[in-house]
Amino acid sequence: MEYHLHRWSVVGDFFKAPEAQRIRLSGFRNQDERRVTTSAVELVEGRRITTVSGSIYILEDIDPDYLNWMVDNNYPYDPENPIKVK
């Protein structure tokens, strides 16, 4: 299933061992007012993200607070390729 994710940010698996941590996304799906957190990110293709569960998310507008945090912590933001995974 494909969704559009608005006001998104990256979140982590903070309660797992560092070697088992994977990133997830949090945001508002299809402009509704219910915040969702995705399963772990599996594949990144520009603004198209596929999760472990098989859901596809198209990243729309970034959460302004998350963008400010990125700027404050010297993380570069590329709007065409916004998610970096190892």
Write a brief caption for the model.
By secondary structure, the chain is mostly beta strands. 10% of the residues lie in helices and 37% in strands. It is globular.
Percent helix, as a range, is 10-25%
Structural class determined from secondary elements: mainly beta
Average pLDDT score: 89
Major sheet characteristics? 6 strands, mixed
Number of structural units classed as domains: 1
Helices and strands in order, then pairings?
Layout lengths: L1 E10 L12 E6 L5 E3 L3 E5 L2 E4 L4 E4 L4 H9 L14
Parallel strand pairs: 1-6
Antiparallel strand pairs: 1-2, 2-3, 4-5, 5-6
Describe this structure in words.
The protein is globular and about 30 Å long. 10% of the residues are buried. It has one helix at 64-72; strands at 2-11, 24-29, 35-37, 41-45, 48-51, 56-59. It has 86 residues and is mainly beta. A hairpin with a 2-residue loop joins strand 4 (41-45) and strand 5 (48-51). The protein has one domain (2-72). It contains one helix and six strands; from the N terminus they run ββββββα.
Features:
86 residues; 10% helix; 6-stranded mixed beta sheet; 6 strands
